[in-house]
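@channel anyone free to eyeball this complex?
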Amino acid sequence: MADELILGGRTFRSRLFTGTGKFASRSWIPKMLAASGSEMITVALRRVDNSGQAENILDFIPPEVVLLPNTSGARTAEEAVRIARIAREAGCGNFIKIEVITDVKYLMPDNWETLRATEILAKEGFVVLPYILPDLTLARRLEEAGAAAVMPLGAPIGTNRGLQTRELIAMLIENCRVPVVVDAGIGRPSQAAEAMEMGAAAVLVNTAIATAEDPATMGRAFGLAVEAGRLAWTAKLSDQSLSARASSPLTGFLD
Amino acid sequence: MEIAIRVNGQDEQSAATTLSGLVAERQLATRSLVIELNGRIVSQADWPTTRISAGDVLELLNFVGGG
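replying in thread with the prediction:
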C-alpha cells in the first residue's frame, strides 16, 4: 500500500517540498530536484527585471514538478489575494502558499491576514497552503475556511534552528484534519526526520538545501531523511523509559 | 508617436499601441508573463487587442526564485 500524500487533487510520493530561493546559481535547482525526489517547489512573483536574465525560473523546474507560488511581499490579505490571482493567471496551476509578513526582523507571518486571505482564496477555488505561526485555534479556522493544509513554521525563515515550535506543531498534528506541513526553520536532515517522526504530513525546506555547499547532495540527504522519518512514524516508534530495559536475557548467565 | 506610461513603478515612453506591441518593444519572453493594466489582469489572449494610452499604469510580472 503506497503511503502517498494527496493535496489539491495531486498525489505526492515525496513528502519533501522544496524552494527555489537563495541558490548561488539556478542551475543547481534541477540537480537538486533530481537528487531529492521533491515533487513540489515554491517560487515568488515579482516585477519583470528588464536588465535581468533571459531565462525564466520555470526553465529550471521540470514540468512534472508542481509549482507552489508564494504571496511573499504581501503585507495584507488584499495584497496576498492580488498576488495569488496574478500567479494563477501565469498558467501553472492553482496552488498558492499564503505568506503575509510585515515583521522584518523575524519574518513572522501575520496569522490574522493569512486567515482572511485563505477565506477569500479558498472560495475562488485555489489550493490554499497557508504559512503560519502554529496556533491550534487558527488552524481550526483555516480548515473551516477551506485550507488544503496548514504550514506551521518550525523556526523563523532562514534561521536553520529546527523545530523550536515543536510542542505547538504536535498539537496541530494531533488535532488537524488537513495535512500539517512544517515549513521554515528546518536546518538539517535530522530535523526534517524529526518532524516526520512526529507525524507531520510533509516538510518544506528551502534555505538549508539552497545554501549548502552542495545543494544536490543536501537535497538527497533531506529526501532520505524525510523518508526515514515517515517510515518510522508508520512503523510506530516504541516508547521512552527513564530506567534501562535490558536487550540481552537476564538468565542463563555463564558462571 | 510615443506615449507616457508608467511601467513597474517607473515613468517611461512607449511607441506601442497595444499590450502585445509593448511586450515586443521590450523584448520580453512571454512564458508565464502576467500583465496588470490599471489594476486589472489582462489575459495573454487579449494582449493583441488591448490598447494602451497615455497615463496607463502597468505591472509586468513573472515568477522568480523564492521560498
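from a first look: DSSP finds eight helices and ten strands in chain A.
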